[in-house]
């Protein structure tokens, strides 16, 4: 793939930090610049070798990099896009956001007849937040959804796809609207349900025996609700139409189970449980 003289990463959490470590491990750039709000995060990234130079400001040399990666929360990435399109039109740039429609539309709106942006969503990460959970091999074998528009330049399409592939990802090109619909069901809804489940048990938290009653099932089901609220509130609102549609279907499913339990319909209940279990067993694990 193309070797970049410099790569900039805006946001050095789990994903952004992992990108920096992966770039350095695979020698994909001569120099890696990183931006983070926290000085402590910058120090960790520098000491680990994930970046060569750090800043807390959206400024040169970060913004002059050949390739710029937006790894901040999705609404923050939208803000940077507006600046980038008028700042350095020759820079290739991509993102890691969990929604694709808004950012692609924003880049198209802010640019001229063409641009060097390709949207990305690596299906990787965890409920843990912070650079300390970053890994150079986070993207190995993971699906990387890529989305473009008619304005995306052929050079950016080729180079950005090659970059993500070089990090170990399996590239899947997808139309932005389809992407946002799919992840509403497979990612956004499960996160919302996990958050809601955790909140629903809050009244029991003061019971001295509550923690003794917590088993692996509860921990597995609510694991992703340990994620950062700042990140997920952003995602929920940016993809709210698809999330609300998926939530309505979930509520109908939940109501069906509630009705069967209330009426003690054992046979039908078992059939629904087996159907759900069979679907779960058929899924390919992606992380």
What is the compact description of this entry?
The protein has 287 residues and is an alpha/beta fold.
Distance between the first and last residues' Cα: 25 Å
Strands side by side in the biggest sheet? 3-2-1-4-5-6-7-8
CATH architecture grouping of the largest domain: 3-Layer(aba) Sandwich
N-to-C series of helices and strands: EHEHEEHEHEEHEHHHHH
Poorly predicted runs are none
Quick one: overall form?
globular
Number of helices: 10
CATH superfamily of the largest domain: NAD(P)-binding Rossmann-like Domain
Description:
The chain has 287 residues and is of the alpha/beta class. It folds into 2 domains: 171 residues, Rossmann fold (3-Layer(aba) Sandwich); 104 residues, 6-phosphogluconate dehydrogenase C-terminal like domain (6-phosphogluconate dehydrogenase C-terminal fold). It is built from 10 helices and 8 strands. An 8-stranded mixed beta sheet has the order 3-2-1-4-5-6-7-8, sandwiched between helices. Strand 2, helix 2 and strand 3 form a beta-alpha-beta unit. The radius of gyration is 21 Å and the shape is globular. The two termini are 25 Å apart.
